[in-house]
Write a structure and sequence with these properties.
Layout lengths: L3 E12 L2 E12 L3 E5 L6 H8 L7 E6 L2 E2 L11 E4 L11 H11 L6 H11 L15 H13 L5 E5 L7 H16 L3 E6 L2 H7 L2 E6 L2 E6 L1 H6 L5 E7 L7 H5 L4 E7 L2 E6 L2 H14 L4 E7 L3 H9 L6
Length: about 300
């Protein structure tokens, strides 16, 4: 892995008796997409606000491209492109005019027009560039919001929940844009509470809860924390609680519970356990209507580490 663009260490922030961020630390290298995955209120936005110099830290440090970031370090912030949750666009200006306005704030000079055209192409808004942004869909506004953060070619792009409230098509376009940026060598810090986004985009993931990073690693490394267990959802006829004890006793089954007309089974190896589970159910006189097999995912990891669902 290349040298880190971002190194944050022991970040801390409190509001009275509330500890919002409690010792958060991680790094992001050039060309790497790092995900902060956690539920709403976990400390994601507070962390990136300190990293981007919008919020004063109570403790710890954030270094971007070799320079310490504080609320006063104006020059050092030039290495950062921040895409906040809240849209930072002017509705009565066109997409092109929004980009030109922010490009002038970045002092892009003679390269402004060319860079605006490049960004419009990246975010796939060239054909709507001269329309007022109040006429844009929610997804188009989100893509323009990302474009504003890309204008000055930052070394670190920070995206805070960039797909909240957009339709599936726009969401996929945003994710494709982020994938492309990481592939082109930009360091990307991506916060989300959507497990599937983290699994798709991120080279490494920090799971954050109650202001602390409770686990960090690649998807494969994090899933290994669950022990590689699979989940079987088996819809049956009759009363499935009558076979819970028998299924639980099977050698490849770790746990089994009844929920309505279904059995929820946690197995060490689904391919080996499934025939045994089906046989135990049919021998008890019940029919099997359907079986769904789920391999471990980041939702399972979060549940395993915290005892609660990611989106509670």
């Amino acid at each position: 892995m290349s040298e880190p663009i971002l190194v944050c260490t022991d970040l801390r922030k409190t509001y009275g008796d509330i500890v919002a961020v409690d010792g958060v630390g991680f790094s992001v290298a050039a060309g790497e997409t790092y995900g902060l995955l956690g539920p709403n209120g976990a400390g994601k936005t507070t962390s990136i606000s300190m990293i981007s110099g919008l919020l004063e830290k109570d403790g710890g440090s954030a270094v971007v491209a070799g320079k310490e970031i504080t609320t006063k370090s104006t020059a050092a912030k030039a290495a950062i492109g921040l895409v906040p949750q809240d849209l930072a666009i002017y509705p009565d200006l066109s997409g092109r005019e929004n980009l030109r306005f922010f490009g002038k704030l970045y002092s892009l000079g003679d390269e402004l027009n060319g860079r605006v055209d490049q960004v419009l192409d990246i975010i796939e808004l060239t054909d709507r560039a001269d329309d007022q942004t109040k006429e844009y869909s929610g997804g188009m506004k989100r893509r323009l919001n990302i474009g504003l953060g890309l204008l000055h070619r930052p070394e670190l792009l920070i995206l805070d929940e960039p797909t909240v409230g957009v339709d599936p098509q726009s969401r996929n376009a945003i994710l494709e844009n982020v994938e492309r940026l990481g592939g082109e060598g930009m360091a990307v810090l991506y916060t989300t509470h959507y497990m599937e986004e983290a699994e798709r985009l991120c080279d490494r993931i920090g799971i954050i809860d109650e202001g602390k990073i409770i686990a960090e690693g690649t998807r494969r490394e994090l899933v290994a924390l669950v022990g590689g267990r699979d989940r079987l959802h088996v819809e049956t006829s009759g009363d499935p609680s009558t076979v819970v004890a028998g299924v639980t006793a099977l050698p490849d089954v770790e746990s089994c519970s009844a929920a309505g007309s279904a059995l929820e089974v946690v197995a060490v190896n689904a391919s080996r356990a499934l025939p045994e589970v089906v046989l135990a159910i049919t021998r008890a006189g019940l029919d099997v209507h359907s079986v769904d097999v789920s391999e471990p995912d980041l939702e399972s990891v979060f549940l395993h580490l915290t005892g609660k669902a990611l989106r509670e």
